[in-house]
């Protein structure tokens, strides 16, 4: 599963951590999909990776 480092376990934001888990599951699903989708699959995977980073940054900015 996790192609991206999970959020720091010290973060006390269960909803944000749940969002990361859901995004990670979406990335895994796309990773197993047919690779040739006019570039949209790859774009979606990149956006998910970026979004996970933003959620994790938000957790850190919110004090964990």
Count every beta strand, where a strand is a DSSP E run of 2 or more residues: 0
Strand content: under 5%
CA-based gyration radius: 13 Å
Distance between the first and last residues' Cα: 23 Å
Low-confidence parts lasting 5 or more residues at pLDDT below 50? none
Individual helix count: 2
- The dominant shape is elongated
Helix-strand sequence: HH
SS-derived structural category: mainly alpha
Percent helix range: 55-70%
Quaternary state reads: single chain
Largest sheet: none
* Overall pLDDT score: 85
Explain what this protein looks like in three dimensions.
- By secondary structure, the chain is an all-alpha fold.
- The protein has a domain at 14-30 and 38-61.
- 62% of the residues lie in helices and 0% in strands.
- The chain has two helices and no strands.
- α1 packs antiparallel against α2.
- The longest helix is centred in the last third of the chain and has 22 residues, at 40-61.
- It is elongated, with a radius of gyration of 13 Å.
Main features:
64 residues; 2 helices; 0% strand; mainly alpha
Topology:
Blueprint: H1 14-31, H2 40-61
Helix pairs in contact: 1-2
Q: What is this structure, in a nutshell?
A:
Helix content is 62%, strand content 0%. By secondary structure, the protein is mainly alpha-helical.
């Amino acid at each position: 599963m996790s192609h991206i480092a999970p959020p720091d376990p010290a973060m006390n934001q269960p909803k944000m951590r749940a969002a990361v888990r859901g995004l990670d599951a979406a990335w895994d699903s796309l990773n197993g999909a047919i690779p040739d989708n006019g570039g949209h699959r790859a774009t979606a995977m990149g956006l998910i990776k970026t979004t996970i980073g933003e959620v994790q940054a938000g957790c850190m900015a919110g004090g964990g």
